[in-house]
Amino acid sequence: MSAAANAIREDGAGSAPAAPPAKKSGKLIYVIAVLALAAAAGGGFWYFTQGAAAHAEHGKTAADAAQVKGKVPAIYLPLQPAFVVNLEDTEALRYLQVDLEVMARDPKAIEDAKTHMPRIRNSLLLLFGQQHAFDLSTRQGKETLQAKALAEIQRVLKEETGSPGIEAVYFSSFVIQ
């Protein structure tokens, strides 16, 4: 280094200029933090006043949506155990194994079906035993059997309770062998 630079260091009077005060950068950080907090508070306010209603409408359950549309949620009752019957085929010994579930929207209808399950199962076994494998090999044949099963269940419940109660029958398993 030069002698002049050493002289400045030794007497301290001509020292290098100090760094700018940190106050300005501290103020800038403070202003940014206040703006971020204000934005967060504004977003929170909007969410809890406007967005929560929209979010709640979007997040409704299927049951809530069904009730809004005027429908009560469906209640399903599996008919256990599976139905196994000999089919009415003359050329070969054929079996049908089918699992059913019934659907109603009234809990009383489900309770009525449970109460009268022995009679319902008997009627369905007789119905299934009258079928032919060839007729059940198509979708149309299965849908026809489904409609007949519903009619049979509704007939039994109407005779026993005065109300058909059950709205639909669904196959959850369907095997012909």
Biggest sheet descriptor: 3 strands, antiparallel
Give the SSE order as H and E letters. Answer: HHHEEHHHHE
Unreliable spans: none
- What order do the strands of the largest sheet run in, or round the barrel if closed? 1-2-3
Q: Please tally the helical runs, counting DSSP H or I stretches of 4 or more residues.
A: 7
Strand content: 15-25%
Envelope shape = elongated
**How many strand units?**
3
Q: Over the alpha carbons, how many angstroms does the gyration radius reach?
A: 39 Å
The gist of it:
By secondary structure, the chain is α+β, with helices and mostly antiparallel strands.
How would you sum up this structure, described in words?
With 177 residues, the chain is an alpha+beta fold. It folds into 2 domains: 1-59; 75-176, Band 7 domain (Tetrahydropterin Synthase, Chain A). Helices cover 57% and strands 18% of the residues. The protein has a 3-stranded antiparallel β-sheet with strand order 1-2-3. The protein starts with a helix and ends with a strand. The model has no long low-confidence stretch (mean pLDDT 80).
Helix and strand arrangement:
Layout: H1 3-11, H2 23-58, H3 62-68, E1 75-86, E2 95-104, H4 107-115, H5 117-129, H6 133-136, H7 139-161, E3 168-176
Antiparallel strand pairs: 1-2, 2-3
Helix pairs in contact: 5-7
Features:
177 residues; alpha+beta; Tetrahydropterin Synthase, Chain A; 2 domains; 3-stranded antiparallel β-sheet; elongated
